Amino acid sequence: MQKQITEANLRLLIDSLLLKGQRVVGPRQSGSMVLYEPLASASDLVTDELPRRSIKEAFFPVCEDLLEYRKEGQQIELKDIDPARFPETVLIGVRPCDAAAVPVLDAVFSWDYKDQFFLARRAKTTIIGLVCTTADDACFCTAVGLSPNDPKGSDLLLTPLVGGGFLVESQSEKGEAFLATWQDRFSEPDGTQTQALATPALQPFDLKKIKAWLDDHFEDPAWDSIAVRCVGCGACAFVCPACHCFDIVDEGSEKAGKRRKFWDACGFSKFTNHASGHNPRDLQPKRYRNRIMHKFKYYDDKFGQTLCTGCGRCIRVCPVGIDIAGVLEEIQEK
Amino acid sequence: MTQTIDISSYSTITDAIRSEARRILSDSTVSAVIGYTAGRRKGSTQPIVITTADDADQLIFTAACLNDLVVYLTKAKKDVPKSGRIGIVVKGCDLKALVGLLGESQLKRENLYLIGIPCSGVLGSLLKPSAELTTETIASKCCECSDQLPVGCDFVPTVTPAPLPDLEKRYANEIARLEAMTPSERWEFWKEQFSKCIKCYACRQVCPFCFCEQCLCDRNRPQMVEQTPRPSGNTAWHLVRAMHLAGRCAGCAECERVCPMDIPLNLLNRKMAKELKELFNSEAGFEVRDTGPLTSYREDDDQSFIR
Ligand code: SF4
Ligand code: SF4
Ligand code: SF4
Ligand code: SF4
């Protein structure tokens, strides 16, 4: 279904949602950064900047409690965290490269183990995507098969119109339901042109060719030249909308505490450290190789998708200037 | 008023680094040179390790050459080969870190060939690597730098860095602002800053002094500090980091530059440096010292802070 909404009505809609007690999360200024955070009013919404961190934390937060324990003598009491406590949420102003990562995460979190924490939040969330009209030189969605107006992952997609307002297209049942509930705020499309799309500079990669190279170059001197500079932090994985590794740890005392799940990254030297002390990925190039292999080979082998949406975040934050798009170009040329 | 900073010398410096690297690689003075090279995006740079004279032309020096390359010399970076003598490009601030590591017996001077940069300053952030270097975009550390000309190197291109225009002393001003606060206001400030931390450890990984092979904060059997990015674990991490670097931090400000969450880490470092200067008249410099202010004891040490 296609509708149209004015900028003013969109803001009114957000305020009405908030007034109803609905949780609305979108890009907003948070100190020096723009982050996806709960909006306190419609005026908080920022529509012209890609948030520093991705939308994944709406379903997969930096850190969350999994259970609580308490021990009294021989008595051990365990308390589950009730996934029912997660609130209904509307995510608004989600960039296409972020929204597109959500189905990618769905695949892994509902695969052999159903992650109830992820899935419960996911079920209660409506995603309103926002088409990009500007890009910077780190953006490369178009090179990995997406585009600044890709509807993948969005329940509703907003496209800015020339002269203001948005074209609204529903992409799912959730989207339809949302349009029906708030029909007063929307009008029929009047044929106004949509604004020109952002134009990321990179030409589409030949992802098949890249994967074919990865398929038989687990060992290759290129890994050293690409990644000897990698210092092994978690910056790239943590800002990435598609990276989804986590660690689990018990924190507290012998008597009481919590079991927690928190982000982990294959760049860390301890990521594959065995209890024996042996580490199969003993040097940084082997860890960085895993980053590329997972994104463009292993994930594809398992789920038929690429674990990268070209958002460019890892390029912007890497302390040592490692540029994943540059790495892919290099592999493609081999 | 925003003023452009004169970095016209950087192309001369680039040429000089290239020819020196070519020379020391072809006559086998060194087995490798660690320097900077251009990245794919306009203006971007990345560290590079070159091992043949033919690769010398890949080296550059620009206002986007922010990395403190000294980190690659430490034992924490096993991936970078350390056989034979290694050439390395250092700015003044980087050199102070290297000198600190010499003092901590982490490096041997005779295994190094130091190519010093007569520096006119670098950008504060690489989010926009092609930005022009101005009084606004220049790194905060450069605004308070008195070490533009490195001392004790094996080679320094013969250019005199243009004197920097009058720059706002951002750290000094911010420290003064924080010092004027009440303890609880100050605590609120830092609590808010630490709450942003996602424990990506980029700050630790780029720090030349964080060379421990087993970081206390990664231990989980037993857990020494809470590992998770929550208020208690974050505060613990930031206190450990600040205290372990007190009297050692050379002020390259890499931790602050790389923090994806914009936490002003170097502000803590500068405050520590200020305290150490006041208490022990000790500060990072170009002279190798075999003991640091917190690893030595003198009868006349100030003890007034023990209460
Ligand atoms: S790998 Fe980098 S560019 Fe790709 S989705 Fe993750 S952060 Fe974005
Ligand atoms: S690629 Fe960059 S951001 Fe990622 S682990 Fe290596 S140094 Fe850190
Ligand atoms: S602090 Fe000094 S030596 Fe270091 S980059 Fe700035 S101006 Fe150059
Ligand atoms: S770089 Fe920033 S976010 Fe990452 S661990 Fe350090 S302080 Fe925390």
Jot down its keywords.
heterodimer, A: 334 residues, alpha/beta, four-stranded antiparallel β-sheet, 11 strands, globular, B: 307 residues, five-stranded mixed β-sheet, binds iron/sulfur cluster, 4Fe4S_Fe-S-bd (chain A)
How would you sum up this structure, described in words?
- The complex is a heterodimer of chains A (334) and B (307).
- By secondary structure, chain A is an alpha/beta fold.
- Chain A has helices spanning 7-19, 96-99, 101-109, 116-123, 173-181, 207-215, 221-227, 235-239, 284-303, 313-317, 324-332; strands at 2-5, 23-30, 33-38, 63-72, 75-80, 89-94, 125-130, 156-160, 166-170, 246-252, 256-263.
- Chain A has one domain (2-332).
- Chain A contains eleven helices and eleven strands.
- In chain A, strand 8 and strand 9 form a beta hairpin.
- The longest helix of chain A is centred in the last third of the chain and has 20 residues, at 284-303.
- Chain A is globular, with a radius of gyration of 21 Å.
- Chain B is α/β, with parallel strands linked by helices and 307 residues long.
- Chain B folds into two domains: 10-144, no CATH class; 170-280, no CATH class.
- In chain B, strands 1, 2, 3, 4 and 5 form a five-stranded mixed beta sheet that branches.
- In chain B, helix 4 packs across helix 9 (265-280) and helix 7 crosses helix 9.
- The chains are: A alpha/beta (334), B alpha/beta (307).
- The A-B interface holds A 31-33, 52-53, 62-63, 137-138, 224, 227-235, 237-239, 247, 249, 251, 260, 262-263, 265, 268, 270, 282-285, 315-317, 319-323, 325-326, 329 and B 39-42, 44-49, 67, 71-72, 77-80, 126-127, 192, 196, 198-202, 204-206, 218, 220, 223, 226-230, 233, 254, 257-258, 260-262.
- The structure holds iron/sulfur cluster (4 copies).
